[in-house]
Amino acid sequence: MLNRKQAPVIVDAVDFKLQLKPCDRYQLDNGVEVYAVNAGAEEVLQFEWVFFAGNSYEKRNLIAATTNFLLRNGTSRRSAFQINEHFEYYGAYLNRSCFNETATISLHCLSKHVQELLPVVRELITDSVMPETELAIYKQNMQQRLKVNLKKSDFVAGRLIDTYLFGEKHPYGKYSKAEDFESLQRDPLMAFYQQFYQQGKLVLFVAGKLPADLQTLLNASFGDLPNQASAMPEALLQPATEKKYRIMNDPEGVQGSIRIARDFPNRHHPDFMKAMVLNCVFGGFFGSRLMSNIREDKGYTYGIHSYLMNHLQHSGWMVATEAGKDVSEATVAEVYKEMKDLREELVDEEELQLVRNYMMGSILGDLDGPFQIIGRWKNIILNGLDEKYFYDSIQTIRSITAEELRELARKYFKEEDFYELVVV
Amino acid sequence: MIQFDRFTLANGLRVLVHQDLSTPMAVLNIMYDVGARDEEEVRTGFAHLFEHLMFGGSVNIPNYDEPLQMAGGENNAYTTNDLTNYYIQLPAENLETAFWLESDRMLSLAFSEKSLDVQRKVVCEEFKEHYLTKPYGDVWHKMRQLAYTKHPYKWMTIGKELSHIEEAKLEDVKNFFFKYYRPVNAIMVVAGNVTTEKVKALAEKWFGDIPSGEKYNRDLPKEPKQEAARRLDITANVPLDAFYKCWHIYSRMDERYYAVDLLSDILSGGGSSRLYQSLVKEQQLFSNIECHHFGSTDEGLLAIEGKLVKGVKLEDAEKAVEAELEKVRQELVSENELQKVKNKTESMIAFEDMSVMNRATSLAYYELLGDAVWMNDELGHYAKVTIDDIRQEARNIFREENSNTIYYRSGN
To answer: Which among B65, B133, B280 has CB closest to A255?
Structure first.
């Protein structure tokens, strides 16, 4: 007779030998570094061109993001429409994104079309012209989008909490206003483009079923670019002095967007890996303290999460949730209560084992597939780390003790260190 | 080409096995043949609320999540108007844990008052977060009510109103469970680093003795053919005027579905699509515009929606949309343009199929539609679509009397 009360025997995920599949590394003729992972069964490829052209490098708000956006909107030979049509004809997805330090172009395509696509990516890097008409449309549409976003309490809360943590002058804390869009001009964009894309330093990440002649293909399109690094301007960190905020954004709002956050060192700090485990216990997954208490026991919210911000220079430790308007203050109080609990009580062995297994299983799942593997590598490389970081984090998950977690909580979960914000 | 094995247990549970030895993981996906369309109009939102309750403990296992997390696994679920799907991903070595958990909650839930009480609140917060606090968040509630008069697609999965969720009783929960959540109404797909032999043994062991249940025979009211255009003009606290227009289309199993799908890509599937190029870039009437369909199993809707550039009149924006639709009704699209959207579809399918989880869910979905092998025929259906089909479907679908229009005006 089957005993359904008895769980099947499991293999503890902490015992898995997790391997980060190595990636090929080489340089193109001009010194451009290439990181490539050859894996997967489907005939697909992912390319990512990473430029050091994020908003840390701009002198005025939005220059970096707008330049990045307009890369796809016209070269001296092709209109925005023709560029889009070319990539779309081959079923390829061409995207661009701007971050704090880096800005990227990414391409997802079927392997069989790669030869038709790389030369046009080259064209975007070497010959974008950023037509005035495209800039005008962008300015108009982005201002409209901003208007809609400003009606959303979560959007408003996300901007404000970053400003409290880092200050409005810091790349991590500044945000765009309607007048920043209004004052955008083509010339500074072209200058930024020339310095940070045409001439700028580039790192390439490629994954999928790689063609045998990949290096030759990459050299043909990108092996002669200048690839010159520019120094990153010094950023001014100016955290707010006031810690607690309550903002009324929409008098008819039915939920409060809650953000509770503190500063935290970057991945090079010895506490970072341990903090990843403490974060998991605290609010990092569905079984976390915050989720179990505030969603699954009290029903105050659809979801609550905590996370360490993925910034290169300075990180932050963030709790984010949307909770009913009438239970927002109770939610804030419960978050602090959970911090207090972790400061005062040891996490018991069963919970810690569960978190270890969950984290290991989750990494195992995350490493499944070429795009996921290159994503790990990209994070390691851009943070100036190496694969030792990956293996050390795994060792930390396996061996961290309840005492160490409590020490960490005592060091970082001090209520007075946190910024606290509720936007309705 | 996705390979799989298939067998049925004596109690009617259909099981599909898809092996992929390149991954260390296993996926267990269970799809139940019940969605929001099966609800009563006075008790909407129930299929989705019920999905939440599936995590509130089962008859022999008080906590669903913890043993799974202990086994290094993750799970989630979603409800649509058509179906409810539950999936687990975990290290393949621990596959049996997934069988244990899923079979116990198919056997019976714990039916706890506390869980119902908490999840009612959680779902109400979900309702607020996604539909009440977001600008334009209520538009699809209104559109469904406008476009459907009989068919239960007239409400959204989350439900018509908060009160339906607030009033749910434990008795309703039990009835719902024993009507729909039976082996005979479920499809299980096990995928990843697994063998059919092992899956068979585990399926027999854990699911074999669950009572079969009665087959649910869906008999939903059919939506009568729409004979006259319907319009709604509303004003709300939003910053921009927005335009929404929907037309009735075919069911998922209709051969003409593929032409309509490609037609929607021709109109709006990227930076070189027609509506974007004409209305956002050239005429600058819209700040964004999309054309999409709901992919529903029964006769669904094709939607065009966009926000207007400040100062543009909704009437003028609609005329400009109509002019674009008139082009696809009158003129054939070029072979190249059709090829472009076919290529896009091919590549989208290739990217989707990279993940074992997606393959498992797709297999379950096609099996629910009738036969999992259809998953491998999709590209063939798209390949057959001609430029004449595209024009014909534009003529069939884009008729004013088949349309439902909402002017969503900014009250600011």
So the answer is: B133
Domain assignment present for residue A20? The answer is no
- Of A76, A85, A172, which Cα lies nearest the Cα of A128? A76
Residues of A within 8 A of B132 (CB-CB) are: 254-255
- Please list the alpha-helical segments (H only) found in A194-327: 214-222, 271-279, 289-290
Residues A253 and A363 in one domain: yes
Task: Tell me the shortest Cα–Cα distance from A234 to chain B, in angstroms.
Answer: 36
pLDDT at A42: 85
Distance (Å, rounded) from C-alpha A296 to C-alpha A278? 20
Separation of alpha carbons A186 and A20, rounded Å: 44
Name the residue in chain B with its Cα closest to that of A370. B354
Q: Give the CATH number of the domain where residue A200 resides.
A: 3.30.830.10
Q: Quote the DSSP letter at residue A74.
A: B
Q: What is the phi-psi region of residue A131: left when phi exceeds 0, alpha when psi lies from -120 to 50, beta otherwise?
A: beta
Residue B23 with chain A: CB contacts under 8 Å: 368
**Option in B71, B133, B239 nearest A147 (CB):** B239
Q: Best mutation site among B25, B351, B352, B359 for testing chain A: the one with the most A CBs within 10 Å?
A: B351
Taking the C-alpha atoms of residue A322 and residue A423, their distance in angstroms, rounded to an integer, is 9
Cβ neighbours of B356 in A, within 8 Å: 368
| Structural domain includes residue A388 | yes
pLDDT tens digit sequence for A268-284: 999 999 999 999 999 99
**Structural domain tally of chain A?**
2
The first and second tokens of residue B78, run together, are 């979603």
Per-residue pLDDT of chain B (412 residues; tens, 9 = 90+): 899 999 999 999 999 999 999 899 999 999 999 999 999 999 999 999 999 999 999 999 999 999 999 999 999 999 999 999 999 999 999 999 999 999 999 999 998 899 899 999 888 888 888 888 789 999 999 999 999 999 999 999 999 988 998 898 999 889 999 999 999 999 999 999 999 999 999 999 999 999 999 999 999 999 999 999 999 999 999 999 999 999 999 999 999 999 999 999 999 989 999 999 999 999 999 999 999 999 999 999 999 999 999 999 999 999 999 999 999 999 999 999 999 999 999 999 999 998 999 999 999 999 999 999 999 999 999 999 999 999 999 999 999 999 999 999 999 6
Residues A211 and A330 in one domain: no
Q: Which residues in chain A are closer than 8 Å to B61, comparing Cβ atoms?
A: 4-5, 7
A310 and A199 both lie in a single domain: no
Picking from A93, A255, A361, the nearest residue to B72 by CB comes out as: A361
